[in-house]
Here is the input.
Amino acid sequence: MEAVAEKGKTSVHEGKYLTFVSGKEEYGIEILKVREIIGLLDITKVPQTPDYMKGVINLRGKVIPVIDLRLKFSMPEGEQTQETCIIVVEVGAQSNTPQLIGIIVDSVSEVSDIGSGAIEETPNLGQGINTSFIMGLGKIKGKIVMLLDIEQVLSSEELEIAEQLVK
Here is the structure.
């Protein structure tokens, strides 16, 4: 029984997180998933993709799909500023074909070391509300930071679309 109950939970790991702002909220991604942070580049739009999938960029000869986190999380599209940037993350590290994906965010804050005592479990928000992409809530300097499981932010179908974009 315990194993079944544990299966539905996303494990929360203490460690270093890159924190960033998207909309009015602050989020964190495990630093080990982050490959680099770059300024906005020219994004080539790809027809017939979801709104949040902004297109692809050419990063030193490698084509990388780019998503807008605000649109993915059903927030209004933000104005691009000098602080707007792309966080390049690696997803699917456990599979044979790990993939790089760029995530447009409003600004990057800092790298924070978050201990297990400063991470709360994701509250149950009721049926029908998917929070599987939130690993937990980190408490940093009196603020709450949503710790994202970047592997869960995109569904497997969305990852397939992203993979098709770079082929």
About this structure: The mean pLDDT is 85.
